[in-house]
Amino acid sequence: MKKTPVHHKHVERGAKMVPYAGFEMPVQYAGVNEEHRTVRTKCGLFDVSHMGEFFVRGEGALPLLQYITTNDASKIKEGGIQYTCMPNGKGGIVDDLLIYRMGEQEYMLVVNASNIDKDLEWINEHNTFGAEVENRSDEIALFALQGPEAESVLAHLTDTEVRGMKYYTFTTGEVAGIEGTIISATGYTGSGGFELYVPADRAVELWDRILETGQPYGIAPAGLAARDTLRLEMGFCLYGNDIDESTSPIEANLGWITKFTKDFIDAERLQKQKEEGTERRLIGFELKGRGVPRQSYRIVTENGEDIGVVTSGTMAPSLGKVIGMGYVKTDFRQPGTEIFIEVRDKKIPAEVVKTPFYKGG
Predict the structure, then answer these.
(1) Separation CA 164–CA 185 (nearest Å)
(2) pTM as predicted
(3) What is the rounded CA–CA span in Å between residue 214 and residue 217?
(4) How far apart are CA 255 and CA 37, in angstroms?
(5) Number of domains observed in the structure of the chain
(6) Which helix (H) or strand (E) holds 107?
(7) Pairing of strands 44-47, 220-222
(8) Would you say residue 189 lies in a domain?
(9) Is 168 found in the same domain as 20?
(10) What strands lie across the sheet with 106-111, from one edge to the other?
(11) Angle between helices 116-125 and 61-68 in degrees, nearest 10
(12) How would residue 209 be classed by pLDDT, with cut points 50, 70 and 90?
């Protein structure tokens, strides 16, 4: 198992550690519900240093990114960030990722931890454009400072103007005395905040300073379990659950990051799907009975007809409801449609609803 640079800090605080994407990671500290509510109402700090960072440079950088991703990378301005995905040439998704435009011919790609090796191999295999591709995942630590008080906490740690930063933009500045920190107005929680990229050898320093500075604001470290419930309340896809090598961006409602103004891997196949429709679509649902839907549970009609499969499910701490996501036959995708989830051989009624489940407030 790999360990992040602040692994011992999690252990010292008594976090429950679990294997995740090849790393030993904190799943929870005080408990998932408490950590979840802290992020929604105050401020939480996540160690997400397991994520991967690639740098793509040179004249061939943009042509390479345009070819291997679905979104239009030419639209990213310096200091801008774009959400996108890499199609696999068979109608599925290699990974979803963020692209940061660092300079005129330099980009940083942030990829899922479980896909670092696979993604790097895929990118290099399709790099016929002469771009320089560098994997710096082991050199960079990443913390997510999330919640309504995140801005106030960060403002105490930097002279860089972070208040009012536009969503999906970034800047570089000194944070807690660490020069060259990438300050990114992004996150996976739906409660605002930042993601901070620092050299791995300065990670412990930053982790301690953030928690110390955030005490008056009610900050607490949060684990992967709360990260999952927070993202699910927002209807954000998790690679390996809601999207993977067998799901297309169109099926996953990611048509908004699939731009046909350029040529890219699988463009023809995906354009046909967008025009003609797909046999299944990703939906959100609320359970009307007791039980918690888990990944791979069957979605059926009242008569027991198999119409789909659950990809994610949880009791939503902010809502007091059981929610989930899954793929269903397209005829059953409309909000208000009654479906049933098979939980331990029982058919539990559920209703298709629009995402995000959590609307804020």
Answers:
(1) 9
(2) 0.97
(3) 5
(4) 32
(5) 2
(6) strand 106-111
(7) parallel
(8) yes
(9) yes
(10) 81-87, 93-103, 106-111, 52-57, 132-135
(11) 110
(12) very high
pLDDT in tens, 2-18: 999 999 999 999 999 99
CATH code, domain carrying 16: 3.30.1360.120
The two structure tokens encoding residue 53:
């960072």
Letter for the amino acid at 181?
Answer: T
Specify if 228 maps to a domain: yes
Q: Are 181 and 196 in contact (CB under 8 A)?
A: yes
Q: How far apart, in whole angstroms, are the C-alpha atoms of residue 283 and residue 121? A: 32
Listed in sequence order, the residues at least 6 apart from 287 whose beta carbon sits closer than 8 Å to its beta carbon are 293, 313, 321, 322, 323, 324, 341, 348, 349, 350
Which amino acid, 329? Answer: K
Euclidean distance between CA atoms 227 and 187, whole angstroms: 10
Residue 344 confidence (pLDDT) above 90: no
Q: Does the CA dihedral 192-197-202-204 come out positive or negative?
A: positive
- The answer to whether the beta carbons of residues 350 and 286 sit under 8 Å apart is yes
Domain enclosing residue 176, as ranges: 7-51+138-233
Number of Cβ within 10 Å of residue 166's Cβ equals: 10
